[in-house]
């Protein structure tokens, strides 16, 4: 079968590798239809990932059609259209037993810690497969259920609810996913970004406001839209010390700050700032059992998966897809590779 491999830094190759075989009773083999490109994949492509190094087959946002099932599989059959949850933990620690494998000390993500899905056929466990609603007639769109799930996780961690105002820093795919999930919960969103085309997309998708991160009146504008108190929830969907500091500064007393971006650098937040507002500061990592929630919202017509996709590339143009994901030209949100 064909697979898309990051063979060297900034070099994509189409390789041949053996097709996966059923070896366990709960195995399912999926014929991959589409894999969307995540920031993690881009970091690997650029040689910037701390531990994922070429040559490697990446890809963890994926969808496809079931073609074979192990003897113990009961919920799926050949022909089912599915999305795949790439996150799995050890299964025995406290986090895993509480349903939060994403917080397992030994958590793994397919396409990062183990082989990815950017190949014609992919073997997966039954418990990681989720059937797409019949309303999703474009099978490729199942590949963006995973990033939508990251947005749902952030909203759950932030306890987002009806009538709240949520400020999201970053109007890229994950920031948009947070916004779309917040809308499903009855909240309104203000998006902040450096790029005007992304801010315009956020407005088109329902943001009540979208401001440049460099706007000198940013804080005043946000306070004016929140009765002078600040938003109920702020979310850093970028990952930068200065943005964390802004989230802490802007959030209303008794509000919640959600840290969704990743950055190991120190920041200038003090305990006193958190204490005075009695705010809640939470981390949000990948997703924990959010696929059913996303698929239910899609089935009810509350969420459109196509809102996340801006570009599609066939397998032979995979190199172009990665290059575009690096360069992020005007109008770019998320690219996917189709098989």
Explain this structure to me?
The chain is α/β, with parallel strands linked by helices and 339 residues long. It folds into two domains: 2-147 and 287-338, Quinone Oxidoreductase, Chain A, domain 1; 159-283, NAD(P)-binding Rossmann-like Domain (Rossmann fold, 3-Layer(aba) Sandwich). It is built from ten helices and 17 strands. The chain has helices at 39-45, 94-97, 145-157, 173-184, 196-204, 218-224, 241-250, 271-277, 291-299, 318-327; strands at 2-8, 11-16, 27-36, 61-69, 81-84, 87-88, 108-109, 121-125, 129-131, 165-169, 188-193, 209-212, 233-236, 256-259, 280-283, 311-314, 335-338. Strands 3, 4, 5, 8, 9, 16 and 17 form a seven-stranded mixed beta sheet that branches. Helix 3 packs across helix 4 and helix 3 crosses helix 9. The longest helix is centred in the middle third of the chain and has 13 residues, at 145-157. The protein is globular.
Record the SSE blueprint.
Blueprint: E1 2-8, E2 11-16, E3 27-36, H1 39-45, E4 61-69, E5 81-84, E6 87-88, H2 94-97, E7 108-109, E8 121-125, E9 129-131, H3 145-157, E10 165-169, H4 173-184, E11 188-193, H5 196-204, E12 209-212, H6 218-224, E13 233-236, H7 241-250, E14 256-259, H8 271-277, E15 280-283, H9 291-299, E16 311-314, H10 318-327, E17 335-338
Parallel strand pairs: 10-11, 10-13, 11-12, 13-14, 14-15, 16-17
Antiparallel strand pairs: 1-2, 3-4, 3-8, 3-17, 4-5, 5-9, 6-7
Helix pairs in contact: 3-4, 3-9
